[in-house]
Automatic annotation (TrEMBL):
Family of this protein: Belongs to the patatin family.
Gene Ontology biological process terms from the UniProt entry: lipid catabolic process
InterPro entries cross-referenced by the UniProt entry: PNPLA_dom (IPR002641)
CDD domains: Pat17_PNPLA8_PNPLA9_like
Entry keywords, A to Z: Hydrolase, Lipid degradation, Lipid metabolism
PROSITE patterns, per the entry: PNPLA
PANTHER family: OS03G0784100 PROTEIN, PATATIN-LIKE PROTEIN 6
Entry protein name: PNPLA domain-containing protein
Domain PNPLA: 67-261
Amino acid sequence: MALPSAPDEPARGLDKLSYEIFSILESKFLFGYDDPPNLLLSTATFRDGCPRSLLPPAASDGRVRILSIDGGGHPADALLAAASLARLESSLSRLSGDPSARVADFFDVATGSGAGGVLAAMLFSRGPEGRPLHSAADAFHLLLSRSSRSSFVAARRGPLAWGRSQGSSETLRKLFGDATLRDTVKPLLVPCFDLTTGAPFLFSRADAVEGGSYDFQLREVCAATCAAGTAPMELRSVDGRTRIAAIGGGVAMGNPAAAAITHVLNNKREFPFADRMKDLMVLSLGSATAGGIGKEVNPRRGRSLPSQAKLVRIAGEGVDDVVDQAIAMSFGQNKASNYVRIQSNGLEVYDDDIRKTRDADKLLRLLEKQLSQKNVESFLFRGKKISEQTNAEKLDWFARELVKENQRRSNSQIPNVVLKEVATPRTSSAAATKKAPARTSVSC
């Protein structure tokens, strides 16, 4: 006797189940996710054509918001990111109706490498009354001024612009005082390469909250992620038990977005409902000079072979592009709604224009031009193509999505983010003396 055919609804559910299993395997392969949720099919019932055991609770209908910033050791490397965030913060303030809105209010995790790490630390360090110490406009103008100063242009001839010179060390001390990783308003991740262990090291607020052995001063963290050359940056944890011999984050992790995604998917204490890539929304900001760094095609100089330093940067850019492509692929059908990458296309702005310009107004015009460009998207082993939207249009769209997520959370009874709290957070000397900055907007 022929067996009765299965109902159409469960059959469609099995197709969705196959997609869920593929997504889990993909996340495991790319990011080490090793905790597939409740694959007990014998007890599963179907809802909307999908097993309930694979459906997250209603609280996880929202998304964890990740900010990732590329960067090298020079302040100019984070200029495009800083201009992008100044524009984003202005849009967030307007859309939310909150004149005091800050970037950190709308993200759950921030990560930055090199100068991008300094920028992330500025935006997420704790100021008076627990609010972010710096606005995106403050950070942008600081990087703009430091990038256009002759002292920093001269410092570029050496191995490092942030951290080693007396002037840059004083700048970092004024920015962060005695604040440590525990003194950030949201989770912060900053990479470096540790010569002591011969492996990448990720400074993390989540680890710092657990104990002093993983808590470091923010100014030293920023100097470490920008370190380069033959002499590593030596630093110790606040309790003196952990020693790091750091080479810059750009060497180990120029594009730290994948590290942040891994952190979220495996940190169930703080992000209990983030199980899959679709549970995330990621803004990844590239460096100001990418795309033209290794290619000496400036028509004013003609074509020549790249220098050794530029070859190193080409290698780093290639790794960053691979990370970008892997993340985009892992989002699958959710890429358009969950992942935005802002990157210069290198067609109109050249490496030397950014690094040798001492005129802040000219730098601002160059950055405005980059934000008005249509972004270049990488396709693994298939080159690059121009996207349909400009960088500015992508930022404006992402700002609207961030505001929608904040509104969803305000109407939800169960939080999808539960951050570790510090019992008695320290206040940096910089925060203690800094008054609330006046709101300024940057039109970029």
